[in-house]
Amino acid sequence: MATVRIPTAMRSLAGNQGEVRVAGATVGEVLNNLGRAHPGLGARVLDDQGAVRRYVNVFLNDEDIRFLKELDTPVADADRLTLIPAMAGG
């Protein structure tokens, strides 16, 4: 089970938890299982096609999954996924 860090702006969708433990062998499985456990949060992270939404960055440990194997990136029990909503404005 990986640890998923939930940003403050999304914590109300995860029972006000800052971190949750989620099973999955890949980033995609972890995020899908996160969505099953917390449907409102899942909809904010993944779009209808199952892809990570443009305004959400996902890091496995300290690496952006876009520079790894994206949703197919393998996840180990000790790994940490961090969800970071993109900031906009100027």
From TrEMBL:
It comes from the Bacteria. Pfam families: ThiS (PF02597). SUPFAM superfamilies: MoaD/ThiS. This is Molybdopterin synthase sulfur carrier subunit. It comes from Melittangium boletus DSM 14713.
